[in-house]
Specification:
The N and C termini lie far apart (about 65 Å). The protein is about 40% helix and about 20% strand. By secondary structure, the protein is α+β, with helices and mostly antiparallel strands. It is elongated.
Length: about 100
């Protein structure tokens, strides 16, 4: 004859823990050079290429955009349009990681 403990043991149901789906981080980068000199423009292109490659080749990251201001001084953020767009996109939750 089954005991009360045997009856309880038979009623246990095993439910495995669910694994959360991997969520890609939405990543952005910001590049800037302060002048339009040839050296700076080469640096500007190199910065953009570097960040595109870095983000696209990183598992779990999704490239939102590489924001870039060319030939804009760093003394005032107000003059940097792409920097302002980056900040606005961060505030809107469009970007997970900068």
């Amino acid at each position: 004859m089954a005991t009360a403990q045997d009856n309880l043991a038979r009623k246990h149901i095993y439910i495995p823990a669910s694994q959360p789906e991997a969520v890609a981080l939405r990543v952005a980068a910001y590049c800037r050079v302060s002048t339009n000199s040839d050296d700076q423009l080469n640096s500007f292109a190199a910065q953009q290429t570097h960040y595109h490659d870095l983000i696209r080749n990183h598992d779990g990251w999704e490239l939102v955009e590489v924001y870039a201001d060319e030939g804009i001084t760093g003394t005032s953020a107000k003059k940097r349009k792409d920097f302002q767009r980056l900040l606005a996109d961060c505030r809107k939750g469009r970007i997970s990681l900068q």
